[in-house]
Amino acid sequence: MAEVYQLKYLTGRRLKVFLAVADRIVPADAEGPGAGNMATAGVVDWALGRIDPALRSQILMLLIALEFLGVLFGGRPFTRNSAAAQDRELKFLENSPVRVLRLGFFGIKSYACMGYYAREDTWKSMGYEGPLVPDRPFPDDVVRALCQGRIEVVA
Fold first, then answer.
1. How buried is residue 117: exposed, middle or buried, by Cβ count under 10 Å (0-12/13-18/19+)?
2. In a designed cystine with 112, which of 15, 22, 140, 145 is the match (CB 3.0 to 4.6 A)?
3. Any residues with CB less than 8 A from the CB of 79 and at least 6 apart, and which?
4. How far apart are CA 86 and CA 77, in angstroms?
5. Rounded distance, CA 150 to CA 155, Å?
6. DSSP-assigned letters across all residues of 112-141
C-alpha cells in the first residue's frame, strides 16, 4: 500500500477507547474480524471530518468520558477493564436515563457499525456479495480506498 491515511480525530487515548468500544459492539469471531481495528477507525475518522465541528467535539469528548467512567464499572479505565465490565458500562450508557449519555452511546455505536460494515473485507463473513450497483460513486476517493483497504491507516 503506497498511500497512507493519517488519523486526524481519533488519536491517542480517544483512538484506544474507540477501538475498545468498537470491539465490544462488533466483536471478532471465527467468520471475520471485529470492528476494533485501524481499518474501521480510518473510515470513522474520515466521517468525523465531515460533520459539524461542535458535534464532532462532543463525540470525541464522550470517548474520553467513557474511559474514565470505566472506574465506576470495573475499577479501572474502560480500556483496562475486563470485557464484562466494559459491557456493563456500555449497557448502562445504552439504557441511561440521562439523554445525552444515551444519545452519545448510540452515536458512537452508529459510527462503529458504519465503519465496520462499509469495509469490503467484512462483507464475505456476512455472506454479502457487494452492492447491486457496484460502480455507484463514493463521496470521494479517500473513503472508497479506505473501504476497499487500499490505504494503510496510521495513528
1. middle
2. 22
3. 16, 17, 20, 67, 70
4. 9
5. 16
6. HHHHHHT-GGGHHHHT----SSTTPPPS-H
Residue that is written with C-alpha cell 488519536 in the block: 11
Owner of C-alpha cell 452511546: 105
pLDDT in tens, 77-93: 999 999 999 999 999 99
The pTM score is: 0.91
Closest CA to 24 of 97, 93, 124: 93
The total of other beta-carbon atoms located within 10 Å of residue 107's CB is 15
Contact (CB, 8 A) for 32 and 129:
no
Collapsing DSSP to helix, strand or coil, 4 comes out as strand
SS3 assignment for 82-104: CHHHHHHHHHHHHCCCCHHHHHH
